[in-house]
Amino acid sequence: MPAPDRIRSQVRLARDAASGVEAIRARFSGHAYDLHRHDDWLVGVTEYGLQDFFCRGARRISTTGRIILIEPQEAHDGQSGGEGGFAYSMLYLPRAWLRAGLGAGPGEDRDPAFRASLGDDPALGRAILGARAALALPESQLLRDAALDAVLRGLRPHLGRAEPAETPRDDRVARRARDWLQDRLADPVGADGLARAVGAADRFQLARAFRAAFGTSPHAYQVQIRLVRARGLLAAGGAPASVAALCGFADQSHLGRWFLRAYGVTPAAYRRLCTGVPDRGPPPG
Asked: Where is the HTH araC/xylS-type domain (predicted)?
């Protein structure tokens, strides 16, 4: 990212089709946007600079790492509060999605309310940045769902909502989920779909049961078994692009990011080390 005093205005947007959540990463050198409203809940974190905005009848200044919380139909604007400009990440959470995630019943007509529009909460800030990154890249739906669930957990204190009562641990649900992921290694699945497939009460019960049984989350387990399979195929001479498709990765670069993080070497380099066959890509034309 360029130095703050040289930034140009830029907005990048990504959307999760399953939840309807949108994520932006934006940077501005001066005026950002006029007073306006959204029908979604806005939760964001300032990444650098001074983020000056009007909300709830007063001007506010957010600095690096602070979180911004704006309710549906709450008027706000935005501009730089200093010469160096500012950058931030923001999630737009649909009202129905948030209510469902918080466990709001059909008879609850009133939305919850944020206690403040500006605050300090490093854990929630990290969750927002993690979810924005997950939506911006071609990640699995399980990973996206887990990242968004982390945002939900972080928002509960700001909305005055207690953690839901835990359902009893069910090791059978965890084992069925593990077997489902192993048997359908390349199949796309989200947290809600997996929970339904294995008979869990909901995705939150499944996540707790899976972590208790196996010490990790369903999405992390899915990545691990996909990487093990990919490593075997690459060692046998499989081309990285084909291996990525066979193992459920979105594309070769998606496989490459995870493979490098896990093993410290790219898929092409690992294949070459195992087989002596260079990865030159497809022939021209």
From this structure: 175-273
| Same domain? 181 vs 153 | no
* Same structural domain, 127 and 69: yes
Contact in structure between 82 and 62 (CB atoms under 8 Å): no
**Is the domain of 86 the same as that of 139?**
yes
* Torsion of Cα atoms, 238 then 244 then 246 then 250, to 10°: -160
Residue 281 pLDDT exceeds 60? no
Residue 98 half-sphere exposure toward CB, CA atoms < 13 A: 25
Measuring CA to CA, how many Å separate 114 from each of 42, 66, 118? Answer: 11, 15, 10
Q: Give me 2's structure tokens.
A: 């360029």
As a whole number, mean pLDDT of residues 197-223 equals 93
Three-state SS at 60: strand
* CATH number, position 92: 2.60.120.10
Q: What is the pTM of this model?
A: 0.84
Give the amino acid at 215.
Answer: G
User: What is the spatial distance between Cα 223 and Cα 156, in angstroms, rounded to a whole number?
Assistant: 28
Span of 14-18, 103-107, 111-115, 180-184 with lowest mean pLDDT: 103-107
Q: Supply the CATH number for residue 245's domain.
A: 1.10.10.60
What is the DSSP annotation of 98-130? HHHHHT--TT--S----S-SEE--HHHHHHHHH
DSSP 162: P
Between the two ends of the chain, the Cα-to-Cα distance in Å is 36
- Taking the C-alpha atoms of residue 198 and residue 109, their distance in angstroms, rounded to an integer, is 32
Contact 260, 266 (CB under 8 A): yes
Indicate if the pLDDT at residue 168 is higher than 80: no
Residues 147 and 260 in one domain: no
The model's confidence at residue 175, banded by pLDDT at 50, 70 and 90, is very high
